[in-house]
Amino acid sequence: MSVIRTVVAGVGSYLPSRVVTNEDLSKVVDTTDEWIVERTGIHSRHIAADGELTSHLALAAARNAIADAGIDAQEIDTIILATTTPDNTFPATAVTVQAELGLYHGAAFDIQAVCSGFVYAMTIADTFIRTGQSKTVLVIGAETFSRLLDWTDRTTCVLFGDGAGAAIVKGEQGAGTNADRGILTAHLHSDGRYKDKLYVDGGPSSTQSTGHVRMEGREVFRHAVVNIAEAISESLAATGLTADDIDWFVPHQANKRILDGTAKRIGLPPEKVVMTVGEHGNTSAASVPLALDTAIKDGRIKSGDLVLLEAMGGGFTWGSLLLRF
To answer: Is 157 a catalytic residue?
Structure first.
């Protein structure tokens, strides 16, 4: 049976030039390199420069993805930008990227699912392509999450960083089997009962301010491992595949302990897990595409490999996506 599959044609990423190490943080907040590494696995993170906006990061990643795909930017008919840190309350940061790319057609919009944003955005792109709404979609995850941090709160400020990742996805004919290239299945979830476990204490309607990240770390950890594992099991059940079939696991880079716990729970060996949290920290919606681009560029992920993406973020939101690269 012939079907339309959403195929990854190119990927790209961008990291701000400023690197902040754990030692740097120990000079401004009560923490140590040992304390951070033991609890999170993070050694450093990139922080956007003054005046460097989310749209700047997104545009750089987008241009790299366009070049990697070898396409003319004019082929793009839809831009979906996942971010928690838009340039402005409105308009969408995606329209700034659209204008900078010289695109005056199609649609561009932001989505907000915090750390799950890229998985949500890829799922939307897949739906648009399969239904004929779009043919070539630029999917971006971009964050200047450092702008939301309380730099006196060591439980949160040590975790996050800034960055952007992007993918060009296009529709191609497939045979309707698991051997097809492209997205095979995706599963999204949310549960607003837990919104106060990881949130920002500000917003236009509530405080007329940006606010800062607040988190109950133990609760987030507990839910993350269980929820993510269940979403992954959904993807495997939907395709009839098993953990043994997965070539690479590209998870949201929140915390090394969460990644290790999730991989163990679903039966994946550590050598199949793409882990960039040590160098990037948690870059929210940018973390999955950043890790994906890293593993493709260094040659780990090759054409034909089965790749599992997953993420969980504030809300709670979470989801998984299985694709053949």
So the answer is: no
Are 277 and 230 within one domain? yes
Residues 115, 223, 227, 255: which is the catalytic one?
Answer: 115
| Greatest CA separation for the chain | 61
Report DSSP state, residue 44.
E
| CATH number of residue 203's parent domain | 3.40.47.10
The DSSP result for 228-279, as a single string, is HHHHHHHHHHHHT--GGG-SEEEE--S-HHHHHHHHHHHT--GGGB---HHH
CA separation for the pair 163, 37 (Å, rounded): 20
Catalytic residue among 46, 223, 252, 280: 252
The question of whether 282 is a catalytic residue gets the answer yes
Residue 9 structure tokens: 């044609």
Tens digit of each residue's pLDDT (9 = 90 or more) over 222-256:
999 899 999 999 999 999 999 999 999 999 999 99
> Per this entry, what is the length of the chain?
325
Q: Are residues 18 and 156 in the same domain?
A: yes
Q: Which of 22, 227, 255, 282 is catalytic?
A: 282
Q: Global pTM?
A: 0.98
